[in-house]
Design goal:
Shape: globular
Oligomer: single chain
Number of strands: 16
Radius of gyration: 22 Å
Number of helices: 13
CATH superfamily of the largest domain: FAD/NAD(P)-binding domain
Order of helices and strands: EHEEHHEEHEEHEEEEHHEEHEEHEHHHH
Strand content: 15-25%
Helix content: 25-40%
CATH topology of the largest domain: FAD/NAD(P)-binding domain
Number of domains: 2
Length: 455
């Protein structure tokens, strides 16, 4: 057993995955988490890997880059993916989980592991580090004010910031199932995993008008903003009122798009649709897809209850907005996620600008593996750019990148896909999906090769 111990700050998705990768390699972990003693505005418990926004890990198909990323994580023995598969709930072509089951699974696996020591309490300063005493900062986008200021001082860069929004969750028995219909877009997955609220043209524009007039919370900064900081929402998790502000039809091309759906009562595609996604294993809770919001709570209840089927809706959780921060990773980090100016210091998760549950997990996995290698005197690992993990880490660590913004994984980041021939040997044109599947196979083979070498 290697006597080295790595300190991890934050027990979210990235921190939990980093801890798991370390103990798998025989390296002890001191896992520091300020919750439940010090809570954030989004968290509700002290459990590891608590999901505070959606319960969805997004698409599962290999033609979707995040589906490929999940498969790579499984090949690396990811604890987060193990828990997600265990806590899975119906969600069409997506991987969605029962939040409570998911977090409890990870919490139990880590708290009962002999190489993990839990330390509860706020870490106010970035600790001193060395190759013999590595530290992984996986504090997430909701790092405490004191730690955020310490990170800001360390990086010498302005924090970039945006607002992350949470969707409401509704008690299933309070939904009028006579008005909603069950169907997944294009009948993917189970074919009937979502509840759909059909809207007529008049109902849609009445809803948009109500959103425009609603009272909204003004953004509140949890730490003092550096001068000139521009605060903006992340495109992938934008509050519904910000989408509406771009034009009354914006939602028709976003979460309200009716494509791939047919209302059985009319036999036609609705003008617009509100989707509800199962949020727990029993189907007792349903989250409102794409309905992240910063409307005041009374306004949310009033406006959402005007939607067909929700007149008697009981809200288990209302929407909210919180401030996220992330470092200028291209300036600060190597592709190994090691901080360029301090030996033994790694960053992982959303604080690096790798946006999304699966992307955060991938960062935690990479940081955990590399912290283990450093503690054991081994070479650090640079993941091949042909893989989804490698492409994502290359994006956030490219020193030539300007105007850095949070990023979800995309095939557009992968050179194996971008450089792929558009026609096969016989000259037949290859579709986008075919090229993506081919790039995915290259990625998975590269992942298997690297995992075998590092075994």
């Amino acid at each position: 057993m290697n006597p080295a111990k790595v300190r991890i700050i934050g027990a979210g998705l990235a921190g939990s995955e980093a801890a798991w990768q370390l103990v798998k390699r025989g390296v002890g972990v001191e896992l520091c988490e300020m919750r439940p003693g010090m809570m954030t505005k989004a968290h509700r418990s002290g459990l590891c890997a608590e999901l505070v926004c959606s319960n969805s890990f997004r698409g599962a198909d290999l033609s979707n880059a995040v589906g490929l990323l999940k498969e790579e994580l499984r090949l690396w023995g990811s604890l987060v993916m193990e828990a997600a598969d265990f806590a899975r709930v119906p969600a069409g072509g997506a991987l969605a989980v029962d939040r409570s089951v998911f977090s409890a699974y990870i919490d139990e696996r880590l708290r009962t592991h002999p190489l993990v020591e839990f330390v509860t309490g706020e870490v106010e300063q970035v600790p001193e580090t060395s190759k013999n005493a590595p530290v992984v900062i996986a504090a997430g986008p909701l790092a405490s004010p004191a730690l955020s200021k310490s990170i800001l001082a360390l990086t010498g860069e302005k924090h970039l910031a945006f607002y992350d929004a949470i969707s409401p969750v509704i008690l299933g028995e309070s939904i009028d199932l006579g008005i909603c219909f069950r169907q997944s877009r294009y009948d993917k997955g189970g074919g009937a995993d979502y509840l759909n609220i059909p809207l007529t043209r008049e109902q849609y524009y009445d809803f948009v008008s109500a959103i425009e007039r609603a009272e909204k919370h003004e953004p509140h900064l949890e730490i003092e903003s550096p001068a000139g900081e521009e605060l903006r929402p992340f495109e992938g998790c934008m509050p519904i009122e910000d989408m509406v502000s771009r034009g009354p039809d914006t939602l028709l091309f976003g979460p309200f798009k009716p494509v791939g759906l047919v209302d059985p009562q009319s036999g036609k595609r609705p003008y617009a649709v509100v989707q509800l996604r199962q949020d727990d294993k029993d189907g007792a809770l349903w989250s409102m897809v794409g309905m992240q919001t910063r409307m005041k709570h009374p306004e949310q209840m009033r406006i959402f209850k005007t939607l067909p089927g929700l007149a008697r809706a009981e809200f288990v959780r209302l929407g909210s907005v919180h401030r996220n921060t992330f470092i200028n990773s291209p300036h600060c980090l190597e592709a190994t996620l090691r901080f360029r100016k301090r030996e033994g210091l790694f960053f992982a998760g959303q604080i690096t600008g790798s946006e999304g549950y699966v992307e955060s997990t991938a960062g935690g996995l990479a940081a955990g593996i590399n912290a283990a290698h450093l503690a054991q005197g081994k070479d650090l690992v640079v993941f091949p750019q042909e893989t989804a993990i490698g492409a994502l880490l290359a994006y956030i660590s490219d020193p030539e990148r300007k105007d850095f913004q949070p990023m979800n994984i995309s095939y557009g980041l992968m050179p194996s896909y971008l450089q792929m021939e558009r026609r096969d040997a016989a000259g037949k044109k290859l579709g986008k999906k075919e090229r993506r599947i081919a790039a995915a196979q290259i990625s998975l083979e590269k992942t298997k090769e690297l995992a075998l070498v590092l075994k």
